[in-house]
Amino acid sequence: MLSVIRGVIEARDGQEAVELARQNCPALIFMDIQMPNMDGLTAARMIRGIRELCAVTIVAFSAFGSGGNRERAIEAGCDDFVGKVSGVNQLAAITGRFLPVA
What we know:
Strand content: 15-25%
CATH superfamily: Response regulator
Helix content: 25-40%
Number of domains: 1
CATH topology: Rossmann fold
Distance between the termini: 21 Å
């Protein structure tokens, strides 16, 4: 899911996430780690390689909070990691931390 100041844009897979990020220059990206066609960590690495997007905040999330997902997300260039089940309540705090107040 790609979050932009004017709204939310949802990608169906990692490749589409990269393309939508390129087209919309979002302020914040919530990136699911497990997506079809291209996983979220590969998509995050690709986004980090795009000069115009290299500073965008990427927050990875997964239904599986353990097993090294946090470490792999940070290594892929994500700024933070949230487990889907336990982290839903953290989304507002994370959004407030990374997005500018309008």
